C-alpha cells in the first residue's frame, strides 16, 4: 500500500487550494480526513512552518514557507521524515515553476491544474523508491525535525465544522477568495472611460493652476484642492468598479460627495455645463459600481 496517499499545494494566507494530486481513495475515513485537511488549510497561518495532525488510520502533514504550503495525507506507517522530505520537494518544484505574483493573484481553486502531474510524479517516486536510496535526504530532514519538532495536532483539533471549534468556541474563518465580480458591461466600460477623462481634466487643471499660483495668495489653494481631490476620487471610483471592496456603498457615497462639492466649489472656473458633466459622470460611475455584484461562489473543483 502507498504511504503518501494525497498531496496538495495551498496558499497560506487564505487556504486557497492551488494544485493537488489525483484522489484514488474513496473510503469514508479517507474522505473525512480530506475534509479536515481543507479545514486545517484555512488555519495554516496560525501554525509554525511544519506540523502534523494525527488520526487513527491517516496523518496529515503540512510544510509552509512564505505564502505557499504543501499538505499531504499519509498512512500511519509513513515516517514523518519521509513525509516532510516529500513536502519539501513539492514546495521547491512549485515555487520554481510559479512566481509570487501569479500565486498572489490566483482567485479560483486549483488555478495551477497543470502542476497536478508534477505532484503525482513526485508522489509516485516517494512511494516506490526504497528508503536506502534517499537516506541522505531523510537524515537531513530527520536532524531538522529533532532540532525543531513540528507542531503536533489531532484530527479532532482541526475540525471546525459549522463554525464551531472543539464543540464550543465560535470562530469566524476568512474564506478563500472564490468570489469573482460579474463581467464588465459596455456601459461600465463607458463609465470608466469618462471617469478617466474627468480625472485627467482635473489633474491637468489642478497642476496648471498650481504652477501659476505659487506667488498668489492662499485663496488659490482651495481651487487647487478642488481639482485634485475630485481627481483622486475619480481614480478610486475606477478601482471600486474593477475590484470588490468591503463597505462599497459608504465609499461610493463619500467619493460622490467629494466630486460634487469640488465641482460646486469650482463654479466660476467652470461653467454650468462642465460642472453638470463631471457630476453626471460621477453619478453614472457610482451607479455602475453599486450594480456590479459578486458572482455566486464557485463550486469546489475537487480533484
TrEMBL record:
The chain crosses the membrane at residues 184-204, 224-242, 249-266, 272-290. Its main location: endoplasmic reticulum. One of its GO terms (biological process) is protein transport. GO terms for cellular component: endoplasmic reticulum membrane. It comes from the Eukaryota. It is a multi-pass membrane protein. It is found in: Endoplasmic reticulum membrane. May be involved in vesicle transport between the ER and the Golgi complex. PANTHER family: LONGIN DOMAIN-CONTAINING PROTEIN, VESICLE-TRAFFICKING PROTEIN SEC22C. Belongs to the synaptobrevin family. This is Vesicle-trafficking protein SEC22c. It comes from Nyctereutes procyonoides (Raccoon dog).
Amino acid at each position: 500500500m502507498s504511504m503518501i496517499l494525497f498531496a496538495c499545494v495551498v496558499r497560506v494566507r487564505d487556504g486557497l487550494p492551488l494544485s493537488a494530486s489525483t484522489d484514488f481513495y474513496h473510503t469514508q475515513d479517507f474522505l473525512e480526513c480530506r475534509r479536515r485537511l481543507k479545514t486545517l488549510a484555512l488555519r495554516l497561518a496560525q501554525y509554525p512552518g511544519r506540523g502534523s495532525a494525527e488520526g487513527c488510520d491517516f496523518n496529515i502533514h503540512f510544510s509552509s514557507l512564505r505564502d505557499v504550503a504543501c499538505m499531504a495525507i499519509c498512512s500511519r506507517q509513513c515516517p514523518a521524515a519521509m513525509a516532510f522530505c516529500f513536502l519539501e520537494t513539492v514546495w521547491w518544484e512549485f515555487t520554481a515553476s510559479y512566481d509570487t505574483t501569479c500565486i498572489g493573484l490566483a482567485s479560483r481553486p486549483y488555478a495551477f491544474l497543470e502542476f497536478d502531474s508534477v505532484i503525482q510524479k513526485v508522489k509516485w517516486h516517494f512511494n516506490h523508491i526504497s528508503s536506502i536510496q534517499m537516506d541522505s535526504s531523510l537524515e537531513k530532514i530527520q536532524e531538522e525535525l529533532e532540532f525543531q519538532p513540528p507542531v503536533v495536532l489531532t484530527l479532532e483539533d482541526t475540525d471546525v465544522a459549522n463554525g464551531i471549534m472543539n464543540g464550543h468556541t465560535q470562530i469566524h474563518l476568512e474564506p478563500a477568495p472564490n468570489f469573482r465580480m460579474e463581467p464588465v458591461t459596455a456601459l461600465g466600460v463607458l463609465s470608466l472611460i469618462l471617469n478617466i477623462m474627468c480625472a485627467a481634466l482635473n489633474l491637468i487643471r489642478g497642476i496648471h493652476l498650481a504652477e501659476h499660483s505659487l506667488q498668489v495668495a492662499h485663496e488659490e489653494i482651495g481651487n487647487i484642492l478642488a481639482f485634485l481631490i475630485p481627481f483622486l476620487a475619480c481614480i478610486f471610483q475606477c478601482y471600486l468598479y474593477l475590484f470588490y471592496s468591503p463597505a462599497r456603498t459608504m465609499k461610493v457615497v463619500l467619493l460622490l460627495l467629494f466630486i460634487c462639492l469640488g465641482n460646486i466649489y469650482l463654479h466660476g472656473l467652470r461653467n454650468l455645463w462642465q460642472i453638470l458633466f463631471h457630476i453626471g459622470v460621477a453619478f453614472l460611475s457610482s451607479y455602475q459600481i453599486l450594480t456590479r455584484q459578486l458572482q455566486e461562489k464557485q463550486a469546489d473543483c475537487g480533484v
